[in-house]
Design brief:
The complex is a heterodimer.
Chain A: E1 10-14, E2 19-24, E3 32-38, E4 45-51, E5 56-58, E6 62-67, E7 72-77, E8 86-93, E9 101-102, E10 106-111
Chain B: E1 5-7, E2 10-13, E3 19-24, E4 31-37, E5 44-50, E6 53-57, E7 64-68, E8 74-78, E9 87-94, E10 103-104, E11 108-112
Parallel strand pairs in B: 2-11
Antiparallel strand pairs in B: 1-3, 3-8, 4-5, 4-9, 5-6, 7-8, 9-10, 9-11
The chains are: A mainly beta, B mainly beta.
Chain lengths: ~110, ~110
């Protein structure tokens, strides 16, 4: 059964469409940011990270955008697939050696 | 190459009891962090162990304690369990105290009745 994801904001997209998941972070001193994917019954899985000296970073089918002015982070997933259905968390830290502070998460549901 | 492994996967305790959770880090990693994830929320940092010492601690009471062994594995102990301690406890490992690309285990689901 579900171990995470209850009462979370939900984004529902059609298979093949692009998805954009947003995150507002709180600490203006944060300089390292990570996106994690968490499927039911599993721990968070690393997707992509970005440092504060960058405003965009691309991976395979994923792009992270960072807007430090408004303390906003977004994750873009291209050509969303059913396997992308999960809860997505952004996390921030002050210095990559410090503890991560996680956001509240967004559930992504992909309709076939 | 084994990832982060945690045991047990599920545990049921009653209020006032004590519990010990175990974690083996990913091969090549020497730092272990513990996180608590309540239902429907993001993980919250409990503490981090490096070179067998607690290096950083989040906002958790002294009832939460830990240990790291010479082989880098770690234990999380919680005393005097409260109903509110029911959560998924996640272990994460990294190399050299870094949070970059922190690797998480699947967690231990603790239920306190």
């Amino acid at each position: 059964g579900e171990s995470v994801g209850l009462h979370l904001p939900t984004l529902s997209v059609q298979e093949g469409d692009n998805s954009i998941i947003n995150c507002a972070y709180s600490n203006s001193a944060s300089d390292y940011f990570i996106w994690y994917k968490q499927e039911s019954g599993k721990g968070p899985q690393f997707i992509i990270d970005i440092r504060s000296n960058m405003d965009k970073r691309q991976g395979q089918r994923v792009t992270v955008l960072l807007n430090k002015t408004v303390k906003h982070l977004s994750l873009q997933i291209a050509a969303t697939q059913p396997g992308d259905s999960a809860v997505y968390f952004c996390a921030e830290s002050v210095g990559a050696g410090n503890m991560l502070t996680f956001g509240g998460g967004t559930r992504l549901m992909v309709k076939p | 190459d084994a990832g982060v492994t945690q045991s047990p996967t599920h545990l049921i305790k009653t209020r006032g009891q004590q519990v010990t959770l175990r974690c083996s880090p990913k091969s090549g990693h020497d730092t272990v962090s513990w996180y608590q994830q309540a239902l429907g929320q993001g993980p919250q940092f409990i503490f981090q162990y490096y070179e067998e010492e607690e290096r950083q601690r989040g906002n958790f009471p002294d009832r939460f304690s830990g240990h790291q062994f010479p082989n880098y594995s770690s234990e999380l102990n919680v005393n005097a369990l409260l109903l509110g301690d029911s959560a998924l406890y996640l272990c994460a490992s990294s190399f050299g105290q870094g949070t970059e690309k922190l690797f998480f285990g699947s967690g231990t689901q603790l239920s306190v009745l």
